[in-house]
Amino acid sequence: MLITDFWAAYSAVNAADKQCCLVHLLRELEKVDMHNESAEWQAFAKTLRRLVRDGIRLRKREDYNRQRYASRVHRIDQRLMVLARAEYADADASRLGKRLLRYADQLFTFLDYPNVPFENNFAERMIRPAVIIRKNSQSNRSEKAAAVQAVLMSIYRTLKLRGHDPIGVVANALRTYVQTGTLPAMPEAIVADG
Fold it and tell me: What is the CA radius of gyration of the chain?
């Protein structure tokens, strides 16, 4: 499962399923609200906000049986398609309507998977330390340095998430590399007893 914002490059990633971040979508509505007061935009934004909130609320409901839940998910999908396929004179509504159509299969995926969130906040929290380091060090200064930082931070965060001491694992990997000329494989996650 891949959970992302709407950056087009993610379309090339092959994943079993995808979920686009609904928080990013809602932020986009707020941003457009600041400069667009047209009646058509306001109606579009209100309808989309209601649709997103209905999806999130549905996910939180635990009193539906499977058939009723599936029926509600189907109704949300239908409402999304009506909103996405409509013709809009307003440029912002038209642009976002096209986005909804392009990502229709990825907006409410979280309703099909109990452990999938409707936002990518976890991923963004994971990259935040790297962004702060880059900001505090006055950027990476070169493309090569940016690539090195991206790789190192990815290794560091992966090891941390897998329950390892990143500095220790990297130091041991470098020792192995010096002795053998090859790097060891990334260690698997530490499984807690219990």
Answer: 22
Dmax over Cα atoms in the chain, in whole Å?
69
Q: How far is CA 35 from CA 6, 32, 93, 177, in A?
A: 21, 6, 13, 56
User: HSE of 171 in the Cβ direction (CA atoms, 13 Å)?
Assistant: 5
Name the percent of the chain lying above pLDDT 70.
Answer: 88
The runs of H, that is alpha helices, within the chain are 22-33, 39-60, 66-85, 91-102, 104-107, 121-136, 143-161, 166-180
Two tokens, residue 167: 């500095």
pLDDT digits (tens, 9 = 90+) for 112-156: 998 899 987 666 666 667 667 667 666 667 788 777 877 888 788
Q: What percent of the chain has pLDDT over 90?
A: 55
Q: What is the DSSP letter of 190?
A: P
Pull the structure tokens for residue 176.
């192995």
